[in-house]
Each structure stands twice: as structure tokens, then as C-alpha cells.
Amino acid sequence: MENNQCSVIVDAEEHVLGTITDRDIRKALLKQVSLDSSICEVMNKSPTTLSFPLEVRDIRQKLGKMSFEQFPVVDSQQKVMGLHTNQELMQVRFPNTVVLMAGGLGSRLSPLTKEFPKPLLKVGHQPVLETIIESFLEHGFHRFLISVNFQSEMIENYFQDGRQWGVSIDYLREKEALGTAGALSLLDESLEHPIIVMNGDLLTKLNFRSLLEFHQDHDALITMCVREYDFQVPYGVVKLDGSYATALEEKPLHKFFVNAGVYVINPEVLSSIPENKFHNMTDVIGPLLEKKKVVSFPIHEYWIDIGKIEDYQQAHVEYKDVFGQRT
Prior knowledge:
By secondary structure, this protein is α/β, with parallel strands linked by helices. The chain folds into two domains: about 5-90, Roll (CBS-domain), CATH 3.10.580.10; about 95-325, Spore Coat Polysaccharide Biosynthesis Protein SpsA, Chain A, CATH 3.90.550.10. It is built from eight helices and 18 strands. The chain has helices at about 20-30, 55-65, 85-90, 130-140, 150-160, 210-215, 280-290, 310-325, and strands at about 5-10, 15-20, 50, 70-75, 80-85, 95-100, 120-125, 125, 140-150, 170-175, 195-200, 200-205, 220-230, 235-240, 245-250, 255-265, 295-300, 305. The strands form six sheets. A seven-stranded mixed β-sheet has the order 10-9-6-11-16-13-17. A hairpin with a 2-residue loop joins strand 14 and strand 15 (about 245-250). Pfam families: NTP_transferase (PF00483). This is Nucleotidyl transferase domain-containing protein.
């Protein structure tokens, strides 16, 4: 048994009785416990376990406190389901569905979007939507729904069922433009976990695991990612009281937090979205603000919306330094 690795002791029905590590055996030998002694005298009778389904918050808290290389995963009846290493747990595949909104016309990027839908425009050496999917995959997310409308067949032909990337991809097919949230009315009502919704024209190095953990910690219905935006007035600003000037400020800088187009949404929110009708995310979030059920998650990492020509060109320049040369 290698240092700090773990074996699980179970009863006849596979309930966890305890665990034993190399350290436990060494401690017992130092206490001169006989090698003929029952393993029950040596094992840890109150082991640290992880409950299925695995939650990112639980994994991080326990792995951060313990030095063990392996952890038993148990079901609701404390029956062992497996023994997983730290590395495996930190690469856990989350059951949460990721919805990528890719049905827009991309009018601001015309004429580039006359032949290709915006999510298939290349930034770096591959379509922006492919980089988004790979970024989620790196953080353990593997279930995707892509909302499509304009030139939907091109998107579906490119990504198909996602098998090429080792993920599952299905599609929310909008018969007409449904706004920034209307496509969510097409989701299966049986969803059990919060969904992550992201616009299909964003590039970011956001840690999606941390986002999901933040949402769980704050017991929110919706977590909305925000980004700081600076705007400098190019003139001296004059404050007036009637006809009298009371202040003059030269080219003031104003700072705002803007909606970054990434959300975590609890399944119970989806019932408020009218089916197959135009509906924006502001319509979903607005009624929940007074209830204090919407929290914000600031994005400090790289983030860019490629919806305008100048931003699309900027993303091209920055792509290799930010994302590397993906293969």
C-alpha cells in the first residue's frame, strides 16, 4: 500500500465500516499492535467520505482539508460506490447542463455572418463556440444544449452529437427568434440540477467550477456574472443648478458593472418563462431582484464579447496568448 492511499472496509451489504491507510498501519505497529489483530482495531471508524451525487463545494472543502490521496464515494445509504483519487475527483464530470445561446442573427458582424452563423466564426484557428465547449469540458462539464435558429443546420452539422469532443450535445430549435431567454422554455422540465447559460459569442477564462460553487454557497435562484466596464466622458462635465454652473469635472471616468452574459439558473425558475415566446433574460431576472434571489459573480478573468467587428478583431489578436494553440 503506497503512502496515504486508502482501503475501504465494508460489511456484507457494502456499508462503509471504516478505512485504513498506510499511516494507520504504521501507527498501529508503533503502538505494538499485533499483526494478528483484527483490522477493526486499526481502521479509522469515522472516515471522510463523499456523497453521491458529487457536489463541487463538498469536494473542494474536503480535499482542501485532508492529505489523503483517495476518498470513498457513498450513496444515500452509506453503501460504497467507489474509491476515487484526488485527481479523479478534481476532474469530476458534473451533471449540470450547459445551455449555449447560439440562435442570434449576428447582424453587427455583417458581412461576416452572411455565410456563417456567428458561433461558427473562427477566432484563432477554430469556431468561437468550439472554444467555449472546450473551456467547459476542461472544468468537468460534458452535457450541452445549443439553442439554434439562424443557419441552424450549419451548427448542427459541425457539432453533431458532440462525440468528437467526448461530450453530449443536443439542440433547442427555435422556430423563430425567442430573445435571450425564450429558448429556455424548450428545456426538459425534469432537470434536477442548476443549469449554466452562456451566450454563444463570448470568450472567457472564467472558472466555471468556481461559478457553480459560488451559486450553491449563496442559495440563489439565479447567479449573474458581471464585468466591470469603464466609460470616460471625452469632455469636461458641467453640473448646473438652474442657470448657474456649480461644478466642472474634466473628462470624468465612470465605472459600472455590466451583465457578462453567463448565468447559473435553478430549474424552478424555468417555469416562469412563457413557452415559445420572445423573452429576454432581463424579463426573467427582473421579478426576482426584490426577492433577493439574484446574486452577482464578478468576472476578473479574461472576457470578451465578439459581437462587434472591432471586438472580433481584438479577440483574434489576443487568442493565442490567452487560450494557447488548441488542438
